[in-house]
Write the structure tokens for this entry.
Amino acid sequence: MKLPDFFARHPVFTHEEFVEFLLGKGSTNVKTHESILHHYTKSGRLLRVRRGLYLTVPPGFTPERYSVDPYLVASRMAPDAVLAYHTALELHGKAYSVREEFTYLTRTGSRPLNFRGQKYRGVGYPKKLLEKGQESFGVVSVDRQGLDLRVTSLERTLVDLLDRPSLGGSWEEIWRSLELVEFFDLDKIVEYTRLLTNATTAAKMGFFLEQHRETLMPNEDHLQRLRSLTPKKPHYMVHNGRKAGRFMKKWNLVVPHEILERRWEEIV
């Protein structure tokens, strides 16, 4: 594979990937590697996103006019990047609305980036997953422009959003987005919820499935397994601020009226 072929097959690439390609071609001179990158960046063939991350500008485009694919950028923001939360919903085509913030999971201390009006943010894995070595549970690969992108499955994304709703937008956005999904593997949802070892998240998950019983069709076994994970004392669904709501005894959960009554559907 020649250099133009590398660019054609890598709409986005890291410095490490580029060096690996050149080493495979027998080029070991570091200064040569940097000189090549500098040349193609200056000529407009490459667009530098940040240090160590580049986009290939297709023939016929200038860097200024080239429309960047934010999912490709997010997927290469860290060596172990996994697109997650609302970004995962968008990539799966199940988001109610489009956001200009792209979130990915990583074990590294990746700094946030603002690029072309879009924000890229790395967040850490849930602590319990790290302790159990289960970070890759529910992570799948999807092809985008010939590159493999790692993203959380719809099942994991559902639980993750209930676990950390601040990464999904408003409750209306989360509910409406998740309701666009026609099918979930409920066994995987229960299994992943158990891995997180968070009683409040288990209660929220059980409440969500019960509220969507007609469409998602959870059986009593699914609900009972989740009930066994719920808190012993009442917990607020919205922890910060402890919004008033109705106490759902079955789940030991105080659910805001906004969510319980789906107030976003009210005609103003």
Remarks:
- The longest strand covers residues 118-123.
- Residues 30-42 form the longest helix (13 residues).
